[in-house]
Specification:
- The complex is a heterodimer.
- Chain A is mostly helical.
- Chain A has one domain.
- In chain A, about 70% of the residues lie in helices and about 0% in strands.
- Helix content of chain B is about 75%, strand content about 5%.
- Chain B has a two-stranded antiparallel ribbon with strand order 1-2.
- In chain B, strand 1 (about 140-145) and strand 2 (about 150-155) form a beta hairpin.
- In chain B, helix 1 packs antiparallel against helix 2 and helix 3 (about 45-70) packs parallel to helix 10.
- Chain B starts with a helix and ends with a helix.
- The chains are: A mainly alpha, B mainly alpha.
- Chains A and B meet through helix 1, helix 3 and helix 4 of A and helix 1, helix 3, helix 4, helix 9 and helix 10 of B.
Chain lengths: ~130, ~280
């Protein structure tokens, strides 16, 4: 890593650039993991249902067992292909949430209280959307 | 069309969308929704749910690469995300309550506007702006790398930029797009943030904004595995390939081609929305 590109606020301490690099790696790992799970579920799904006719022309809600995290996990245990895909999608949606949570910790380590609060607001909005909006 | 064919074709189309989206910087989302609705006759809310998930994938996947260049400003991003995420939830909530035709019309108009934005010439601000007091208080000012070394920049127009970011969030949640173009305009034009910093910070914000809307779509059953699986995998693969060859390719002609495609899709969406076919 070239030190020249880093902001030298406090030498040896955490700084924005280094935090961002760690966060970037975290995001990438999350996406790769999620894609692998979705791909696995997808192969299973197509292999089992290849010749059925899909109907997405009109909206019909997903069965209850694919909307809440707990029931997605139950489906995965039964090796249900749609549930495995849904688990991968849930992982993917969780990566930016993890990123925000990590940023809050990083700002706290830096001692930047204002940005800890700002980051926690963003985190609260995301968690409300995932868990509180159903 | 059976599930095997549907998955294959949607996956291929999404691959192309992600590829062109990465090459032109417009994102794959703007093509995915029209493709699914106009070509595959998928209900527009399913299409939006799938598109949102693919937006998260490309934004998060590209983040690591962007960050190393040292352009993105995490404080600007995080501060503005308080506006885009709340906007994203509001947009998703609106999408649950209005007709598919209305969404299609708004989508078409936004496509036309994006095409207009992408055809405009971009220039770096030459004059050094005076920082506003609010920007100073929020510690938004920063530096970015240039060939001549680190260049400091000042931020201004925070209330205007913040309001535009809320709007970008609403559009993202309503239409399932990253609305990167609007985010860049808010930072670049309203807040006078250098263009490079605006685009990379915008890319970082897109994933968080889309996650705020995607949670709502998931909870309401609008993220369906059969559609989202090929879309997410296709767009992700396409955008990674696109980002790899971006350095070598001559994108100017492609950009015009893509803008033309978007204009056609925009007109189609408005037409189908007005005539009530979507």
């Amino acid at each position: 890593m070239s030190d020249e590109s880093l902001t030298a606020a406090k030498p040896g301490s955490w700084n924005d650039q280094r935090i961002e690099i760690i966060i970037g790696t975290l995001l990438r790992t999350g996406v790769i993991l999620a894609a692998a799970v979705v791909l696995f579920g997808g192969v299973l799904y197509v292999a089992r249902h290849a010749h059925e006719i899909p109907n997405y022309r009109t909206f019909h809600r997903e069965p209850e067992n694919l909307k809440s995290p707990r029931e997605i996990v139950h489906g995965v245990v039964r090796m249900s292909a749609p549930a495995i895909i849904q688990l991968g999608l849930l992982l993917l949606i969780a990566t930016p949430v993890a990123r925000v949570a990590f940023s809050a910790v990083a700002f706290a380590i830096e001692g930047d209280r204002m940005y800890v609060v700002i980051t926690l607001i963003v985190l609260a909005v995301l968690l409300y959307s995932l868990f509180g909006s159903s | 069309m059976n599930i095997l064919e549907f998955t294959g074709l949607v996956g291929l189309g999404s691959l192309l969308a992600g590829f062109l989206g990465a090459l032109t910087g417009l994102g794959g989302g703007v093509v995915v929704v029209p493709m699914l609705t106009l070509l595959f006759h998928v209900d527009i809310r399913y299409a939006i749910g799938a598109s949102l998930v693919s937006v998260i994938a490309t934004s998060s996947g590209a983040a690591a690469a962007y960050v190393r260049e040292g352009y993105s400003n995490i404080r600007i991003g995080m501060f503005l995300e308080t506006a885009t995420t709340v906007g994203g939830i509001a947009g998703a909530a609106i999408a649950m309550h209005v007709s598919g035709s209305a969404i299609a019309i708004v989508f078409g108009l936004v496509l036309l506007y994006s095409a207009y934005l992408s055809s405009r010439h971009r220039e770096e601000h030459s004059a050094q702006m005076q920082s506003s007091k609010l920007a100073q208080k929020l510690r938004l000012n920063g530096t970015y790398p240039t060939p001549e070394g680190k260049q400091p920049y000042n931020v201004t127009g925070v209330p205007a930029g913040y309001s535009m970011m809320f709007g970008a969030g609403v559009l993202s949640g309503l239409l399932g797009i990253g609305s990167g173009a609007v985010k860049v305009v808010a930072m670049d034009q309203a807040m006078k943030i250098p263009f490079k910093v605006s685009t990379t910070t915008s890319n970082f914000m897109i994933g968080v904004t889309a996650a705020a809307s995607a949670g709502l779509y998931l909870n309401r059953g609008y993220v369906t595995p059969g559609i989202t699986m090929p879309v997410m995998l296709g767009v992700l693969a396409g955008s990674l390939i696109g980002a790899k060859i971006l350095v070598k390719a001559k994108v100017k002609a492609l950009r015009y081609l893509f803008a033309a495609v978007i204009v056609v899709l925009g007109i189609e969406m408005v037409f189908n929305g007005v005539t009530g076919r979507l």
